Amino acid sequence: MNVTSIIESLNDAQRQAVTAPSQAMLVLAGAGSGKTRVLVHRIAWQIQVEGVEAHSILAVTFTNKAAKEMRVRIETLLKVPTHSLWIGTFHGIAHRLLRRHAKQAKLPETFQVMDSGDQLRVIKRLLNTLNLDDSKWPPRELQWFINAQKDEGIRARHMLESPDLHHRQMLTIYRAYEELCDRSGLVDFAELLLRGHELLRDNQDVLDFYQQRFRQVHVDEFQDTNTIQYAWLRLLTDGKDNLFVVGDDDQSIYGWRGAKIENIYSFQKHYPNHQVIKLEQNYRSTGTILKAANQIISNNSGRMGKELWTDAGEGDPCSLYAAFNEQDEAYFVVERIRSWVNEGGLRSDAAILYRSNAQSRQFEEKLMATATPYRVYGGLRFFDRAEIKNALAYLRLIANRNDDASFERVINTPTRGIGAKAIDDIRIIARDQSLSLWASAIVLINQRTMSARATNALIGFLELIKGLATQADGLELYEKVKLVVEKSGLTELYQKEKMEKGEEKVENLEELVNAARLFDFDQENEEGMGELDMFLTHAALESGDSQADDFEDCVQLMTIHSAKGLEFKLVFLVGMEENLFPSQQSVDDVSRLEEERRLCYVGMTRAMQQLYLSYAESRRLYGRESYPRPSRFLREIPSELIQEVRMRATVSRPVTAIQPKPAYLKTTGTYKLGQSVSHVKFGEGVVLQIEGSGAQERVQINFKQVGVKWLMLAFAKLDVL
Ligand code: ATP
Ligand code: MG
């Protein structure tokens, strides 16, 4: 028995948690203290020492990436594969249960999972059929509303009719949305969880089975579970005290999506025999990084209070870079990464973390320009691209003719002469007769009300899908994908598109065939599920976790949210500006601001050796130019822990980087872009733009004290610093 290897690399508190007899347990500890490590070692311990079968263990983590990593770590410890061990995200596991028990969950066997883009499209279509104006009923708001209800376990039928007209209408839409999804066999992400919960709650035999099966249930990142996830965990472990959770209240960052920090308190109430273990030693970061992060989070109120220390050395100070604009910021970061790599560092040890996905583009461009391999997690990932979604829609329709979202997506892509009128007519029949769009199309053809041309076009489309389904029968998964890519007309469509864009799309379609070829059935194996269904579900659930070549050494780009639980030697926390981080929506709301601060804590504590923070003095984002102030979080770090990096002397600023009027821009003899200057009245600032010439020459300066101002050079008394 390989017991020593499981416990030798643990400290006392960790060992206590790992080896405790089966009981409810809460490991509450700060970042990098080994919570995930405890979970992994606990599972290995139970299998190896307690003789628990892998089959009787369930582990829930937050991302697919974390789940994969956890499995690998357990297998490394045990030196055997652990296929029968259930490790996954809440969504992934709920999906697995629903597939196994589709009938009891009142779902058709062929149900399809919609990602949030699909969901939004379904909502838009619904508004259309309900004759509601989507400027008055913004689809995104409705999506938010519907998901928020589901996250709380509330179905439309549970909601009371309200005298408020607006609320009544929302309820009507929610109800209609539920009906539409039921009719089409569509399941959104929130529905996976809710239905997964209802499946256990309403089917005693299913519940009994899983309660008996799982001797131990483990949850990582417990602070970010929402109401329905926690309710589901409670059902599974009811009366058995076998729930083992690890978490950190300071890292709760999904409150905006319904996560309930209070679940930590509820756990303590619901499992009165639980044990709490606190881990206080941080093994991840240098002393300086840890101190800086601890200082920031100490500004939050109502914390559960944990100490975190390290015996690693102080390390280097955190570095702060005040970029001239967002391009300069990207330039700086990429140059630093290049030096890191030149000095022998791995690219994959470097991460660029940002608050918002839209920030990634600048970094991507600079990385591409320097031929530095990188991977973006989240954002517009492979499976989100339009051409890929179109191909997947064909595949979905082949698998399930009632998949209305897919029907709608490809009925006229590529164009085949099916006009908006015909599509509208189909929708009306679907609404009036409660039919799927596919069935409604057949009704419409039989009504013989359309022109011969339109009828033929529609028949052509239905025949195409049926033909593809027949030909696909018996083929390998990748051959099916290839068939669709080639025969659906999509490849031809994109080949006709001009220039690189179209080419890239065709390449992406080829990549999809490749993805299908490489698809790992063993990892995803779901009982009774066809390969195609598995692949389609994978595409819907895949949150960009493994979009690029997994084995290439590449720089990691992601939002701070998706960096949760991960660690990197070199971390760049970029865009540290007011209204970006903390975000604009949070600055006036204390609880949201505190969540942003926790997010900052999460971001900083990803760093092992070196942490860079940066902000831009001018930023163009979402097509708007702004002159932000540095983030308040920067001020919360004691100055002795921070060292300001000055690149200005060495980097020549790209004049063309200034937008939006490059034609007017030029450097004057005296002042240069990015130069630090001082004004008698306004104090110190940095030159952002220079316009005009001679007596008309003026400069735009971002002053530290008073913000951005234009000054006429002829009058301004400026000193160059
Ligand atoms: P987070 O809150 O960010 O999720 P965590 O508490 O889950 O962090 P881990 O990721 O488990 O922390 O551990 C952080 C790092 O410290 C990892 O590299 C892990 O291998 C290492 N580590 C944890 N415990 C020990 C230990 N006892 N000895 C050596 N290294 C350890
Ligand atoms: Mg962890």
Task: Kindly summarize this structure in a few lines.
The chain is an alpha/beta fold and 721 residues long.
Question: How would you characterize the overall build of this protein?
Answer:
- This protein has 721 residues and is an alpha/beta fold.
- The chain has 5 domains: 4-100 and 194-277, P-loop containing nucleotide triphosphate hydrolases (Rossmann fold, 3-Layer(aba) Sandwich); 115-184, Arc Repressor Mutant, subunit A; 318-381 and 547-657, P-loop containing nucleotide triphosphate hydrolases (Rossmann fold, 3-Layer(aba) Sandwich); 385-413 and 434-535, PCRA, domain 4 (Orthogonal Bundle), CATH 1.10.486; 667-720, Thrombin, subunit H.
- Helix content is 44%, strand content 15%.
- The strands form 4 sheets. Strands 9, 10, 11, 12, 13, 14, 15 and 16 form an 8-stranded mixed β-sheet that branches.
- Strand 19 and strand 20 form a beta hairpin.
- It is globular.
- It binds adenosine-5'-triphosphate and magnesium ion.
- Magnesium ion binds at residues 35-36, 220, 565.
